[in-house]
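Hi V.,

You were right to ask for the full record rather than a summary. Here it is.
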Amino acid sequence: MTATAEPAPPALPTFEGTGNRIVLALIGLMLAFAGAGVGGALLLRPAPGHGAFAAPQAYAAPAPAVYAALPTLILTLNDGRRLQELRLRAVLEFDPQTPLETVTPHLPRIAEAISRRLLEADPAELRGAGGPVYVKDALRHVANKAMRPLKLRQVLIQDMLLR
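Predicted structure:
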């Protein structure tokens, strides 16, 4: 009698200790990243005279700018088909060192020059988001040309209505 032994199925791997190993590996990885972060922070900290350990310095607030308001401009523009009215109120901003008394005499000349320049413009250029940009650029050019030694810092449009 010969007995034929059937081959045993292959043994499946057991995962009894694997869960603990994964947890330990993750904790070790977290500690390694924390150590790298602390080391990087210590290496990249500012020098004592320049950053965190420096004595606080007095903060000087910037001087307020000088503002000059142009008179309200009401222009009638013609696009070839119909007439459109443009109402514009703008403010010019200058450096704080510029006295307002030196700017004020130039304002009527600037208003007249920008009126002439806008009368030549096509109303389609003044519509949409590009309209205020066009007006600001034109006003900056005219103001810098009229007040040659003085420098204009910024043009602020308070109100612009094209109807």
